[in-house]
């Protein structure tokens, strides 16, 4: 009986080849995945070591619709604009084209270098666009009357507390995709992943004063 089972198994292995990939294919796939991970981490991780784990936000570029929605909610406004976590600078360039004196704060040196080189090749003067390799959590934002941020849900509450402490009453804050959990009034534009939210600091402060139950902790 056992002999016949062995025979059957032998037969099957000759009919159905094993699924084991060729060693060169395995090695090639491994090398490719390692390379892709390396490229990804070069863009997303440098400069992050000093940031506490709960405040880490990876790089994810905003899409055209999102940028358009941000610019719509900034219509009629002027002055200085800060983009918190400026990535490759796309929001900063859009704001600069609309007449804002724009500053991008970015922790990743490769993205800062990339954005600066884009500014150079486009011939945008430093008086209009500046990219700073700076941790925005450690930066005083009180001189900005427009702030944009495309970050992550986990940091929004803390960001709200920082902006409440620092921004002037005249400031407008636009957040992409993630609203402030504890800020009362907001106007929004777009939908789904491209939704952006606008907040005027004077209105936020007065509403937080009149309904303290929604106040940030
Ligand atoms: C979701 S991306 C948004 C990029 C860009 N604003 C856009 O709309 O395409 C968030 C960016 O914030 C940067 N970032 C995260 N924490 C930061 C910090 N503390 N200071 C400066 N930049 C930071 C990341 O490196 C990343 O490039």
From TrEMBL:
One of its GO terms (biological process) is regulation of mitochondrial ATP synthesis coupled proton transport. GO terms for cellular component: mitochondrion. Keywords: Methyltransferase, S-adenosyl-L-methionine, Transferase. It comes from the Eukaryota. Coiled coil: none annotated. InterPro entries: FAM173A/B (IPR026170), SAM-dependent_MTases_sf (IPR029063). GO terms for molecular function: protein-lysine N-methyltransferase activity. The keyword Endoplasmic reticulum does not apply. Belongs to the ANT/ATPSC lysine N-methyltransferase family. This is Si:dkey-190g11.3. It comes from Oryzias melastigma.
């Amino acid at each position: 009986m056992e002999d016949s089972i062995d025979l059957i198994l032998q037969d099957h292995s000759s009919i159905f080849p094993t699924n084991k990939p060729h060693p060169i294919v395995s090695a090639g796939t491994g090398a490719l995945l390692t390379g892709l991970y390396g490229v990804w981490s070069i863009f997303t991780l440098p400069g992050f070591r000093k940031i506490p784990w709960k405040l880490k936000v990876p790089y994810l570029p905003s899409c055209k619709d999102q940028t358009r929605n941000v610019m719509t909610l900034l219509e009629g406004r002027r002055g200085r604009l800060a983009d918190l976590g400026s990535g490759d600078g796309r929001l900063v360039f859009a704001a600069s084209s609309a007449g804002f004196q724009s500053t991008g704060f970015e922790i990743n040196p490769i993205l800062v270098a990339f954005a600066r080189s884009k500014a150079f090749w486009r011939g945008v003067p430093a008086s209009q666009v500046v990219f700073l390799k700076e941790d925005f959590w450690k930066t005083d934002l009180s001189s900005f009357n427009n702030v944009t941020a495309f970050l992550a849900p986990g940091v929004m509450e803390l960001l709200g507390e920082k902006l409440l402490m620092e921004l002037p009453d005249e400031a407008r804050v636009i957040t992409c995709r993630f609203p402030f959990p504890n800020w009362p009034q907001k106007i929004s534009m777009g939908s789904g992943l491209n939704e952006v939210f606008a907040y005027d600091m004077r209105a936020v402060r007065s509403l937080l004063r009149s309904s303290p139950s929604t106040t940030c902790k």
